[in-house]
Specification:
The protein is an alpha+beta fold and about 475 residues long. Helix content is about 55%, strand content about 20%. The chain has three domains: about 180 residues, 2-Layer Sandwich (Beta-Lactamase), CATH 3.30.450; about 100 residues, Helix Hairpins; about 150 residues, Heat Shock Protein 90. The strands form four sheets. It has a five-stranded antiparallel beta sheet. A hairpin with a 3-residue loop joins strand 13 and strand 14. Helix 5 packs antiparallel against helix 6. The longest helix has about 55 residues.
């Protein structure tokens, strides 16, 4: 016994997609977060290198002549340390100069300091000065507080040359704490964009999963309705062409099965229904071969003619019904003026209605129109009215009215006469089921209302037959949303 919950395929795909997106976002975000700080510091170090080399060139002459302390360069460095820039970088206000600049001679003794705190001190053991004096790249990062990782200061040095001889060192220092606001801003922006992109990607994934699940549901419903023998249009898929191929395969299979079942069913029903008229014709023809009076010959000849008409009528009705039943959707939809449609139908039955003195009352529709298959709707309404004529007594009436409800237009036909017996009320739309006509006791083919019901289904509507106080009420509704 399977206790696993039945989770739709679309949901399962989305859950897998969700896990992959979250894992990818985590890996990417953690990698970027780790790389932001060293990248910013490397970029800053590269800038400090350029700055140190520029200053080394500018002060080289003063260091060579040992006039640096009284030179213009010394005054400029002092003014540089006092500047208050009003810069706004990435939304962060920069109000102080963060660089410290000091210069040492060829022995590593500080001869100029922008902060005036370490003049005369020996810096020859610091890596920035020590390595540069040896002709190497000099740089160091020193922490002011070993418990505070942000207290480190980056030092980058450049040699001062007199010809090919190193006569001093320029060091440019910058506290890493001054870089931290930009690192935090960069991290914040990266996180924001990752969140936005993750949500967007998840939304797209959810949309795709929903479309896949919706497509599968359409195919499932299509297959279920095919199994139940219902009329249903083949679902179409624009993006997922693989589902369209499956839909085509199901449609092809349905047509093959319908064709086989349809032929088997109609051969059986046609054989059964033709037995009686054929037997009557055979019997009449045998009797006509004997010696009969003139009146007897006429009577049996009329029996042959009546049976032949019955067979012809049955075959024509079966052909009309089979054509409608084979249709899965309407192929010829046009705009119909209801006033003209009802006038044509009433005119078609006027001879019979006049013979029985039956009044047919139709509504005034003005310019009201609907979309439908003109031929099928005309035949369906004609069948209903012919049935109504059969069961309406002489001097009776038939009324036609229209009702608009929830996207449906209903043709309501009420005829005076006896109500339909309860045992037959739910069977009047069955194929070959018919009630005896009150005037002669004869039955029809039993295909008329079944034809009307099929037409109603093709128009996404419904056929309802019920008893009322006046007589019998038949409602044929069709959708107003047909395309």
């Amino acid at each position: 016994m399977n206790y696993w919950p039945k989770i739709p395929l679309g949901v399962r795909l989305f859950l897998l997609y969700f896990v992959l997106v979250i894992l990818t976002t985590y890996v990417v975000s953690s990698t970027i977060m780790r790389e932001i700080k060293p990248t910013v510091r490397q970029t800053t170090e590269e800038t400090l290198v350029d700055m140190a080399n520029l200053l080394a060139v500018l002060v080289a002459e003063d260091v060579k002549n040992k006039t640096l302390s009284h030179s213009r360069s010394a005054q400029l460095l002092k003014h540089y340390g006092q500047r208050r820039p009003q810069a706004k970088i990435w939304g962060y206000d920069k109000k102080h100069v963060n660089h410290r600049i000091y210069i040492t001679d060829h022995k590593g003794i500080v001869i100029l300091d922008s902060e005036n705190t370490d003049l005369g001190k020996d810096f020859s053991k610091w890596n920035d000065v020590y390595l540069t004096l040896k002709g190497q790249y000099g740089a160091r990062s020193t922490a002011l507080d070993i418990n505070d990782p942000l207290s480190t200061i980056m030092h980058v040095a450049a040699p001062i040359y007199n010809g090919n001889k190193i006569i001093g060192v320029v060091t440019v220092a910058k506290p890493n704490r001054s870089l931290q606001p930009y690192i935090e801003i960069a991290k914040k922006r990266v996180i924001q964009w990752l969140v936005v992109m993750s949500v967007l990607v998840l939304f797209v994934g959810a949309l795709i999963a929903w479309r896949i699940n919706s497509a599968l549901n359409k195919l499932g419903n299509f297959a279920d309705k095919i199994g139940l023998g219902e009329k249903v249009a083949k679902p179409k898929f624009r993006v997922f062409y693989e589902f369209n191929q499956l839909s085509n395969a199901l449609e092809k299979m349905r047509k093959q099965l319908d064709g086989k079942n349809y032929v088997e069913q109609y051969v059986k029903t046609l054989t059964h229904e033709l037995k009686s008229p054929l037997a009557a014709i055979k019997g009449a023809s045998e009797i006509l071969q004997t010696q009969l009076t003139e009146n007897q010959k006429v009577r049996f000849a009329m029996n042959v003619e009546h049976s032949s008409e019955r067979m012809q009528n049955l075959i024509e009705r079966l052909l009309s019904l089979s054509k409608v039943e084979q249709q899965q959707q309407l192929s010829d939809i046009n705009i119909i003026l209801i006033e003209q449609l009802l006038s044509d139908i009433v005119d078609a039955i006027s001879l019979r209605s006049d013979q029985k003195c039956i009044q047919v009352i139709k509504p005034k529709c003005n310019d009201m129109s609907i979309k439908a298959d003109v031929f099928l709707l005309h035949q369906a309404l004609l069948n209903i009215l012919e049935n109504a004529l059969d069961f309406t007594p002489i001097n009776g009436s038939i009324s036609i009215s229209l009702q608009n409800t929830q996207g449906q237009v209903a043709f309501v036909i009420i005829n005076q006469g006896k109500p339909i017996p309860e045992y037959a009320l739910n069977r009047v739309c069955e194929r070959f089921y018919s009630l005896p006509r009150p005037n002669n006791g004869k039955k029809s083919t039993g295909l008329g209302l079944n034809f009307v019901e099929q037409v109603a289904k093709l128009h996404q509507g419904l056929l309802i037959v019920e008893n009322t106080e006046e007589g019998v009420k038949v409602s044929l509704s069709i959708s107003t949303q047909l395309k």
